[in-house]
Amino acid sequence: MEKREFETIRAYVETFFRQSGVHDLDHVLRVTRLSREIGEDEGADMRVLIPAALFHDVARPIEDETGIPHQEEGARIAEKYLREVGYDAERIPAIVHAIRTHRFSTGPEPETLEAKILSDADKLDAMGAVGIARTFMRAGEHGDSIEGAVGHIHEKLLKLQGLMYTDGAREIAEGRHDLLQRFVESLEDEIGSGDLTSPAEPPVQSGNTSSHRT
Residues near 7 by Cβ (< 8 Å), separated by ≥ 6? Predict the structure, then answer.
């Protein structure tokens, strides 16, 4: 029953994502897989956790248009859909809470195990190799530079390791943080090998060059 329910929810969620991006369907599915992995180790209620993970960014594509924070609109969309399809009514409030609290930078703190796992999984997808790829996708979406992307890594991504709620997420975050750290150090070393804002020095010429002037 659960598998069929989750597949139906996924099919509905897919209708909200029409193009690739930092917060696209691939991101949602990665976060769902991470949520399941951590949730199985932590003893989470999967009938709360998986729907919350699938719906957590469902309103991202329309956030800029509406001005409504995607976690609030996503929670509303999820609650409406789940009630309409007759999903377990006792679990819907916990699903809504997890969606509303998954965004670590804004909003209330997650209070339930499932909400904490979803928040952790969402942060983990901003770390490691995937986090690096998403950072430069984001830079492209915003017309930003390599230096701007590096700034985003320092300002946000390198701080995520210390914000995990669960033991399972902390274990995964350790390796992803190390990879992120090594990458940004290598990138900064390469960028720092020359001043990108200065024109190249003209070549030094030897001897009398006056006879070559026109």
Answer: none
Q: Crossing angle of helices 2-14/25-42, nearest 10°?
A: 150
- Which helix (DSSP H) or strand (DSSP E) does residue 202 occupy? none
pLDDT tens-digit map of 83-113? 999 999 999 999 999 999 999 888 789 999 9
SS3 of 121-186: the string is: HHHHCCCHHHHHHHHHHHHHHCCCCHHHHHHHHHHCHHHHHHHCCCHHHHHHHHHHHHHHHHHHHH
| C-alpha span between 72 and 98 (Å, rounded) | 11
Both tokens of residue 151? 């700034």
Asked if 63 and 134 touch (Cβ cutoff 8 Å), the reply is no
Report the CATH fold assignment for 126-193. Answer: Methane Monooxygenase Hydroxylase; Chain G, domain 1 (1.20.58)
Residue pair 56/30 in contact by the 8 Å Cβ criterion: no
Tokens of 184: 């940004």
CATH architecture of 1-113: Orthogonal Bundle (1.10)
pTM of the entire structure?
0.86
Query: In what helix (H) or strand (E) does residue 158 lie, and over which residues does it extend?
Result: none
pLDDT of residue 198: 45
CB 165 within 8 Å of CB 120: yes
Q: How far apart are CA 16 and CA 104, in angstroms?
A: 23
The tens digit of pLDDT for each residue in 128-181 reads: 999 999 999 888 887 888 988 999 999 999 999 999 999 999 999 999 999 999
Total residues belonging to the chain: 214
Q: How far apart are CA 156 and CA 168, in angstroms?
A: 21
